[in-house]
Amino acid sequence: MTQNPDQTAASYADGVSEAHQLANTTYCVKSFGCQMNMHDAERVRGMLEAAGSFPVDTFEEADIVVFLTCCVREAADTRLYGQVATMRTMPPRPGSQRRVVAVGGCIGQRDGEELFQHLPNVDVVFGTHTLSRVPELIARVYHGQDHVAALLDADALGEASTDLPTHRDEEFHAWVPITFGCNNFCTYCIVPYVRGRERSRAFDEVVAEVERLAATGCKEVTLLGQNVNSYGRDLYGAPRFAELLRRLGETGIPRIRFTSSHPKDLSDETIAAMAETPAVMPQLHLAVQSGSTRVLKAMHRTYTREQYVALIDRVRAAMPDIALSTDIIVGFPGETEEDFLQTLSLAEQVRYAQAFTFIYSKRAGTPAARMEDDTPREVIQDRFDRLVAVIQKTAYEANQHELHQVVPVLFEGVSKRDDHVLTGRSPKNQTVHVALPEGHAAHEYVGDIRDVRVDEARTWYLRGTLVGA
Length: 469
Ligand code: SAM
Ligand code: SF4
Ligand code: F3S
Known about the structure:
By secondary structure, the protein is an alpha/beta fold. It has helices at 12-18, 35-50, 74-86, 105-111, 114-118, 134-142, 191-195, 203-215, 233-236, 241-248, 268-276, 293-298, 305-318, 337-350, 377-400; strands spanning 26-31, 54-55, 64-69, 100-104, 124-126, 148-150, 173-177, 179-180, 199-200, 220-224, 255-259, 283-285, 323-330, 354-359, 406-414, 421-425, 431-435, 449-457, 462-466. The strands form five sheets. A six-stranded parallel beta sheet has the order 2-1-3-4-5-6, sandwiched between helices. Strands 15-16-17-19-18 form a five-stranded mixed β-barrel. The longest helix has 24 residues, at 377-400. The protein is globular. It starts with 11 loop residues before the first helix and ends with a strand.
C-alpha cells in the first residue's frame, strides 16, 4: 500500500508523536554510497532514537534494519541485494515480535514499490525525498501493517533543509549538506535522476548550523553537495559559495572541507576565498573523469582538458601546497587507447595526491547506456591497472612533502588493526598514524588537534610521533 507522501520535515514532529511506539525497539542502519547517504543515515538514526529506538551493532540484534542505498555503479546494487537476501532466513531477535527491513536512499527512489517484488523480505520502501517519514512508516509495519512505501518524484521540491533530529557518531566532525540534487546530467550518471534538481539550503541556515557546531566543540565540517560551487544559484540567482566559505571562516570552526566541486563552476572568487580563509583546508577534490576532451564532451562535462589544466594552474598559483584529488572513469563507451593515454598523461601532469578510479558501469536510463560500448573487459581492466599505478606513484610522491614536517592532526580514533595506534587527518586530508603514548588512553586525544612530526610517508598514509608528548 502506498501512503500519500505529503509529509515534509515540517510535519515530522507529528509523525513521531504518533509513532512513538518504537519505544524499546532496537535498530541498525547501514549506508552505502556517498557522504549524502552517510548524512541521511545520521538523520535516520536521530529520528529513530527520537521515536524511542536504541542502536545496536548487528542485524541479528535489531528489530529495525534500515538500508540507505546507492546505485551509482552496478556493484552497489549487487551489494544491497546480497545483504537483504541474507536476512531472509534470520529469525527476529529473542523476545521480539518481528524484524522490519526498510530500504531507502537512491535504490529506494529508483525502484520504488518494485522492490517488494525483487526483495520479498523488504517491508518499507522510501526515497530520497521522504526521509522524514521513516519512523512513522516503520512503526506502521512494526505494529502489524503488511508493507508500506512512501515516495515522491525526485524533482519534487522540499527537504532542502536538514531540520530533523540527527545522531552524529563523532562530535568532532559534521557533514553539513549545502545543496541537494544535481543539474549537470553527466551522461553516465544516475544521480540527477534519483536525487532530483539542485536545491540549496538558505545561507543563514548553513551559517547558523556551523556556528552551533563550533560553539559545541566540533572541530571540522565537510560541506556537501554534488556540485558545491554552484551553491545558492537556485535561491539567489548567482552562486554564493565563495561568500559562504568566507562567512563560515568567521564562525570559529577550526577546519572546513567541501566536496564535490565541478570544474566548470570553480570560480576565481572561490579559489581566492579558499586561499584567504585559514580554516579552509589546503585540499581540493576536483573530479576530472577523463583526460580526453573528446570523451569529456561525450560525458557532457562541459570543459576541455586544456580548461581543466588551466584551472589547476590557477588553483596552484593561489595555493602552491594544495593537495589535489579527483575521480576518474576508465572505459567510458567508445574510449580508445588514445583517449586513455590522454587520461594517463593528465594524471601524471596534475600529480594527484589521491584519486578515486572507477571502471565505467552502465546505468539504465542514462544517455551513455545507449552509446556503443564494445571495448573488451580485459582491455578496460588493463587501462584501469595502468592508471592505478600512476596514481600510486603520484600519491607516494605527494606524501613525501610531509616527511620530517610537523603537521596538525585531528585525531579521529584508533587504527582498525591496532588499538594502540591513534589515527587522524592532516590538513591535506592525509591519514596519519601515531603510537598511543605509554600510560595514556585514546579518548584523551580523539577529537583534538595535536602537532605530529612525520617520520614515515607511505602511499596512503603518514606515520609520526606526537610533538611534546
Ligand atoms: N558530483 C560529483 C562530481 O561530479 O564530482 C560526483 C558524484 S558521483 C556520486 C561520484 C563519482 O562516481 C563520479 O565522480 C564518477 O567518477 C563516478 N561515477 C558516476 N557514475 C558512474 C558510472 N556510471 N560508472 C562509473 N563511475 C561512475
Ligand atoms: Fe553525477 Fe555529474 Fe552530477 Fe556529479 S555532476 S552527480 S557526476 S551528474
Ligand atoms: Fe550513490 Fe546516491 Fe550518492 S547513487 S553516490 S548514494 S547520490
